[in-house]
Amino acid sequence: MNWDSYINGFKSYLKLERSLSENSVEAYLHDIEKLRLFLVYSKADVQPEEIDLKLLQGFLKWVNELGMSASSQSRMITGIKAFYKFLLMEDILKEDPTQLMESPSQARKLPDVLSVEEINGIIEAIDLSKAGGQRNKAMLETLYSCGLRVSELVNLKISNLHLREGFIRVIGKGDKERLVPIGTIAMRQISIYRTDYRILLPDVKGSEDFLFLNHRGKKISRVSVFTILKDLALKSGLKKSISPHTFRHSFATHLIEGGADLRAIQEMLGHASITTTEIYTHLDRQYLRDAILRFHPRS
Prior knowledge:
The chain is mainly alpha-helical.
């Protein structure tokens, strides 16, 4: 067998057995292609089962010299380890050469957080007299109310809205479903958008159930959401560099500052591990001090 055969098998494994999304599968395959590129560069004509730790260490040195960030290197190592785990499962290998591969140490980068006033300013900058204005308002209210990833927002379906009960069903990473509470303001804006604006858009086969559509009646793209948000931030006078993820981080931070339980936020964000949620609880020292003084029995 050759590289292509192994990679095709790995692709099927990721899709069928691990049930990963298309984006995740492509990311894993990109990691393997990077390793193949290194082997071409270093003139090492070897098959996957012939790669040893020395070659892998040379690969890590190479990607580091290319200027790849520590976080990108760590994610790539995860992809390569998954590939070799697959080869072990298939009995193609007897030993895993990636066992001793170490990820570069990296500092946790805390994303920017917006104040409630800044979020209000962005939403108030929407011109409701323009085409797409009401859709944009409903989108941003939903993004902030539910702490969604941008991929979860653009893939939100009408059939997954349970507004009478106050919940939406979200399809997250790895096609995992979760129920997320939605606030009354977001629900009201969605209702206005659906009854007064979305109904006027053309019916496009395959997009009928998606909630947020572009002017051609197709599912809105991730890039469009980024562009809309950046334009509104500029219009509102905000100097920070923001993205849809900034709304997600602000959602979690504001909940923590309001006294919400970290486990509840973990469920709402769809994190498998509580340690992932902790990076979203970026709080200033004064807030932490006040919380301890208020609740500690010896304070």
